[in-house]
Amino acid sequence: MKRIAAVLLSGLICAPVLAADNFKNNEDAIEYRQDAFGLIAYNFGDMGAMMKGKKPFDAAVFAVRAQNVAALSLLPAEGFIRESSQGDTGAKAEIWQDKAEFDAKMKQFQTDAANLAVVASAGNEKEIKQAFQATAKNCKACHDTFKKD
């Protein structure tokens, strides 16, 4: 648990500083977060295929994918600068209208992803499935509220 807290804390401290000057324009911020979400989706999709039996469960591969998602989960929040509410984005205006709720859901995703990585490294498939489902549930809740179809 201390490891999870350390990873999250370092990401949360650095992100606001970086976001202020990291993007040339709103399209740059949108592209950044979309790229980060794309990598998360790739890794999460591979784990999902294992959980659904569409692909053989491989604990070592799953653990790598979970570690990737945990690390990648720290990236997208930086790209949600106010100026990026307009443009070629799947983000709903509700993100900026209720930024506190969006930020809370993003932090919960980061916590869930970090927990999934820790659980996956232990290799217990039953516990992995539970942690995966918790992470997936939070992803869906955020998408339902803040992502355009």
Keywords:
single chain; 149 residues; mainly alpha; 6 helices; elongated
Brief write-up:
With 149 residues, the chain is mainly α. The chain has helices at 2-21, 26-51, 59-72, 94-97, 99-122, 125-146.
Characterize the structure shown.
- It is elongated and about 45 Å long.
- With 149 residues, the chain is mostly helical.
- Residues 13-18 have low confidence and may be disordered.
- The chain has helices at residues 2-21, 26-51, 59-72, 94-97, 99-122, 125-146.
- The N- and C-terminal alpha carbons lie at a distance of 35 Å
Mean pLDDT: 88
Q: Total number of helical segments?
A: 6
Strand proportion = under 5%
> H/E element string?
HHHHHH
Global Rg: 15 Å
Low-confidence spans: pLDDT under 50, at least 5 residues? 13-18
| Number of DSSP-assigned strands | 0
How can the largest sheet be summarized? none
Rough shape?
elongated
Structural class: mainly alpha
Helix content: over 70%
How does the SSE layout of this entry go?
Blueprint: H1 2-21, H2 26-51, H3 59-72, H4 94-97, H5 99-122, H6 125-146
Helix pairs in contact: 1-5, 2-3, 3-5, 5-6
